[in-house]
């Protein structure tokens, strides 16, 4: 039963991390490219709307669940036959931590600046606001994408290794 719980926590961490990596990837290869083609007020308006809409339970499950399940998986793999998987889980936690720090230090503050600017129609210099936000936001989103994708890869490899651990009580 312990092995099932251990594997399930690793699987949940992998799925949640994959969802988060996919979200950032979608921004990198579609959302921000599309927004790059619109006028300044539309850019500000859409970014404000996205930043409001994304704060929901589904996002929280993926974004927060990845960290919670990865730490749980690390704890559960910290002893016995699960230790061979632990370095990959720890690497994923570190990489996910990089994404988490970038999000909190760069992207969220830029999102907050967009929100604080007020209604797009009332912003005196939407071009200046966009110039201040867009390039930095996009560059650091790529860092988030790479870090979370690498974390996903580490967890996927950890699952492969998990599958190679002999089951308790198996002949061998």
Feature tags:
single chain, 172 residues, mainly alpha, disordered C terminus
What does it look like?
The protein is mainly alpha-helical and 172 residues long. It has one domain. It contains five helices and no strands. It is elongated. The chain starts with a helix and ends in a 9-residue tail after the last helix. The C terminus is likely disordered. This is Putative membrane protein. Keywords: Membrane, Transmembrane, Transmembrane helix. InterPro entries: Anthrone_oxy.
Give a concise summary:
It comes from Kitasatospora atroaurantiaca. With 172 residues, this protein is an all-alpha fold. It has helices spanning 2-35, 40-53, 57-76, 86-116, 126-163.
Helicity range: over 70%
* Tally of discrete structural domains: 1
Task: Tell me how many strands there are.
Answer: 0
Class per helix and strand makeup: mainly alpha
Q: What number is the mean pLDDT?
A: 95
SSE pattern, N- to C-terminal: HHHHH
Distance between the termini: 19 Å
Radius of gyration: 20 Å
Task: Tell me the fraction of residues in β-strands, as a range.
Answer: under 5%
> How would a crystallographer describe the biggest sheet?
none
> Which residues sit in consecutive blocks of at least 5 with pLDDT less than 50?
168-172
What does the overall shape look like? elongated
């Amino acid at each position: 039963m312990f092995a099932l719980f251990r594997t399930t926590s690793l699987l949940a961490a992998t799925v949640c991390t994959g969802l988060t990596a996919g979200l950032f990837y979608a921004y990198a290869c579609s959302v921000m490219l599309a927004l790059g083609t619109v006028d300044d007020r539309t850019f500000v308006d859409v970014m404000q709307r996205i930043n409001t809409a994304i704060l929901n339970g589904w996002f929280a499950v993926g974004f927060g669940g990845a960290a919670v399940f990865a730490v749980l998986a690390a704890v559960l793999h910290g002893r016995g036959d699960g230790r061979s998987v632990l370095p990959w889980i720890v690497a994923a936690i570190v990489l996910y931590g990089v994404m988490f720090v970038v999000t909190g230090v760069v992207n969220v503050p830029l999102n907050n600046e967009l929100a604080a600017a007020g209604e797009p129609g009332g912003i005196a210099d939407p071009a200046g606001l966009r110039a201040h936000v867009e390039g930095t936001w996009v560059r650091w989103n790529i860092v988030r994408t790479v870090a979370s994708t690498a974390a996903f890869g580490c967890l996927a490899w950890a699952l492969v290794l998990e599958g190679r651990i002999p089951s308790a009580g198996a002949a061998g």
